[in-house]
Structure of Sensory transduction protein regX3:
Amino acid sequence: MEEQNANHSWINNDPLTIVETEFLHFCLEYRLVEVAGQEIELTAKEFDILALLILNPHRVFTYEMIMDIVWNEECNKYSRKAINNHISNLRKKLKTIPEMPDYIKSVHSVGYKFEM
């Protein structure tokens, strides 16, 4: 059984993709987000947007880039509104405690970035 598992490194206890701040715990492989130790329920798109931003801190993602990467679609006149709605919901869900910083920053008329 050991030899079979060696071919599937994801089965072993290989390091996970984890990002932690003072209040936020993010694990990509478990699709887990916790704020102050409390698990936060995110939709698939909210998680994918957060993953894109948190795994690329300080990098600005345009609306077009977010639409292409998360939705795998080209940007259209409704895309910006959809992205803004998802970001708004994501910010509300992450702000479960008053001391939680606003990690997701708007870049006016361009898109979003994650600041730690």
Q: What stands out?
A: The mean pLDDT is 90. Residues 79-94 form the longest helix (16 residues). The chain has one domain: 2-114.
